[in-house]
Amino acid sequence: MNYIEKSWSWSHLLETTTEIERRIDLISSLSIRIESVPETRFIKLDNELKQVQKKVTPCHYPPQEWDRQKLIKLAISLDELSSAGLVHGDLCPRNICWDGVQYWIIDWEPSLWQIRKGRPTLIYTHPFIAPSEIGTTSSLTSLSDKVAFALTILKVSTKNEPSDDRIKEIENEVRCLSFKEIAEDF
Questions:
Q1: Correct CATH for 3-185 of 3.90.550.10, 3.40.50.2300, 1.10.238.10, 1.10.510.10
Q2: What is the dihedral of CA 181, 156, 145, 174, to 10 degrees?
Q3: Gap between the Cα atoms of 113 and 19, Å rounded
Q4: Domain spans, the chain
Q5: How far, in Å, CA of 142 to CA of 175, rounded?
Q6: What residues contact residue 77 under an 8 Å CB cut-off, 6+ apart?
Q7: What are 74-112's pLDDT values in tens digits?
Q8: How far is CA 64 from CA 96, 146, 151, 157, 159, in A?
């Protein structure tokens, strides 16, 4: 079985140790029981945090088109993750992988705030974020994951980037929806 390894210096992870440990424990435990998350574990070392994640092969991202039933299964997984209090934060086409059988949510970060290029950075891919959370000094919420999921569906389906006004409309449309409802509606 193939695994992908990634590591971070503890000094580059900007959330508290308690917040990071809660997040990595959630990612690890949910990756075992939620179908769309590859098995992921973290190893805490003195100076770094190491992630070992099962490699999804083959991994095609973004998908060329959606398999509707598989997309709904992915949405149900996202609802389970959200119910458990876990926000991906960087849900975008390159972090949803198709292996020919199912969709996988990949690239789980141990902290959504990190030092990147010498600066404190909120980890997300523009425009895959709720507009109301751009510039936040706290972590992202499931609203950003919902907006990102809807935008990813839209981008793959239409092959176009929506306008800023359309993204704001999407934020309002998905605010009270489950991920499953988003998948069924878009």
A1: 1.10.510.10
A2: -40
A3: 11
A4: 3-185
A5: 9
A6: 34, 35, 36, 37, 105
A7: 999 999 999 999 999 999 999 999 999 999 999 999 999
A8: 12, 21, 15, 8, 9
pLDDT in tens, 65-78: 899 999 999 999 99
The answer to whether 136 and 101 have CB atoms below 8 angstroms apart is no
Measured N-to-C along each axis, helices 142-158 and 164-174 cross at an angle, to the nearest 10 degrees, of 120
Between CA 132 and CA 172, with CA 34 as vertex, the angle to 5 degrees is 20
Angle between helices 68-83 and 142-158 (to 10 degrees): 170
